[in-house]
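Risk register update: the risk that structure generation would not scale has been downgraded. Supporting records follow, first protein first.
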Amino acid sequence: MYIIIMAGGSGTRFWPASREQKPKQFLNIIGSRSLIEQTFLRVSPLTEEKNIFLVINHIHRTLTEQLFAERRVTILSEPRGRNTAPCIGLAAVHLRRHAGDIPMIVLPADHFIADEDAFRQTLRAAATVAETGAIVTIGITPTRPETGYGYILKGAQQSTLSEHPVFLVEKFVEKPDLPTATEYVASGRYLWNSGIFAFTPNTILEEIAAHLPDVYRGLRQLEEHISANTYQAMLDDVYARFPSISIDYGVMEKTTRPVYVLPGTFGWSDVGSWQALYELRRDERDERENLTDGRTLLIDTRRSFIYAPSGRLVAAVGLDHLLVVDTPDALLVADLRRSQDVRRVTEELKRKEWKQFL
């Protein structure tokens, strides 16, 4: 099998620690290694290093090469971010040209997995199903009514593979409101959409051709130029014309081909916000449920997260559910429970053209 690690995201919800030049997937926010390195090490037992592709934004090429200087990974650069459909398509044409119609596992670079052995077992089972020409996704058994994730409605069980039940997908569902999410969890029929997929290059490219024909035409042009000295110019031209569209919206919600889902119970998080990180690092909190990283002084403060890589002392007095992120040139102060809204700061910075803070 081949592994495609998608690492082109901008990480706007982790501003100001995450910036355009060094977004979330390159930060050491869980442990001593960056999220992209942890993802690589997590999947490397599944295949040879040369069979692992990293798809990144071109501005992170040097940073990625430095992190993986001693590894034999393949690095594919996108000239600009165009969401997951073009990203996956780019990897698929390179893989088809490189190795033929081999199952490919596609996963984001910035997720957290608690039980890595169980995770790898699930991916192996997914790759086996994908060998038949099927589209496969990994759904996460919900632990709470979450409004920040998309959901998958699972249908009838089709088989069991290496003790993993395989269900038909009835439909993909957009992020729900809280009452709807509560109903989903209570029904027992819904899974969180992890954004992890398995298929062969031919399978996914056929689906892109059917539902995103303009994207497919560009990908075919790229495939014809992969080994030519005109490839980079063609890549720039094609990506300038690509829409920004996710594989979920562009293909998964429209396909008439059967899609299968394997439920995952390996302790998953998309680490999608500062609050999600606070929840993941619960074992590091003090007796008042505070999580601190850096030089801090807390008085009568509870359930707060102070992240201070700047080295300056950050003191907090009489606060609750506080989020503070202190960096050398920008300071974020927010309600920890509203950390999903941090992306609105980056949107406003773009509107004001304050590029030095992006």
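Supporting record for the second protein:
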Amino acid sequence: MNLLALMAGLDEDATTAVSLVMCSYLGLLTAKSWLALNIIRQQRQLLSKYEAELGDSEHGQRRSSTLSTPVSAAVNVNILTSVSVVQPILSGDPLLREKLWENVEALPKSVQFLWLVDETDPEGQRIAEELRAKHQNVRVMLCEESPPTVNPKTFKLDKALRDCSTTWFVVLDDDTVITPQSLIHAEAHLRNGDLYTGLPRYQSDRRFWSRLLAHFVNNNAVLTYLPLLSFEPPVSINGMFYVVRTSVMQQSGGFGPLLNELCDDYAVRRHATKHDWRVIQGITPQTVQTSIEGYRHYFAMMHRWMLFASILIRDQSISVQLLLTFLLGIPPVLLWCSILLTCLMPEMTIQLFGLLVARYLLLNLVHLTAFRESRALSPVLSLTAELLQPLHALHGFLVRTIRWRRHTIRVCEGNRFEILKQGEK
């Protein structure tokens, strides 16, 4: 009897422990979701107030208070009349022409586009010139090859900044699409800030690896960038899209001091901190789409992103590292533990099912609130993407060599890098 009682007690303790792990995961996810939704509510109140001011001003025109309503291209807003959208271009992605065209068509003709194309990239030149011939607000700038220890993207941006005379300097990746709202919301926030960045929203095709990558981004974008704002200023920026005053960037030395740093978005964030800029993490979504050519391409992208994340985390204070670990690193581990422990204790299957349903509903709530679209996340791919995160993070932490921009690169300390093998042009 004593043995049976002891075994029953152990079973009860094990059940309690598994329940505690599941509740810890769900509690962290709920807390992050609440923090993110609170930031979204605050920013939408600010943006509604700003749009009301535009509607009441003699230079504006009244629009619907629904922020998802398209903004008229005729709106006379400062940022839409003195802005340069600067896009470093590299051919190779089949979607390049489509994404460049979407941006030019979506934004008002008052917005100037500057496309930075390598002299050694004839396909990129062909696409850029073909589109430039159809749009008077597009200019193409040919760029010589960057030196071996210089970031190619930053090299092009530095060249563009020295040639820029508009009020606003907008950096936009060639696989990213923005709308007029992105710029108008940047204008609203930059009345009290120096640099504005938005949220990436990944658009996939029907292929498995593309969908898996999209679920990783869409699982994490809102729950990574926004909850931290309740505790710390943004530790990095979304390098796919950000807006800065041209004069402010030029007076701080431009991109020159950042040329030798590999993670260009984090380098810009550190540059902003050094010069006491106020960085604004906004909620405006930017649509990103890249052709994923199979599992090798998927793993290469995830490895690069996680390696860059490890550089950022190691450069933070102990308190910020603990916060990042608590909010971002621990939840996937708790999810793994919940699933593995349930395999050992099948009687916890119902609780695990409830956990997964609650997780799915919370992620959908955040996704729909932030991006205002009806497309739901796939429960299977969303779960798979989160379970793979610790493996990708470990890979990024241990393996410091990446394949990027056709080159094989070793990542060094201090965000520096060394090209081990030149890629073919």
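Confidence is low (pLDDT under 50) at residues 3-8, 58-76. On this basis the risk owner (M.S.) recommends closing the item.
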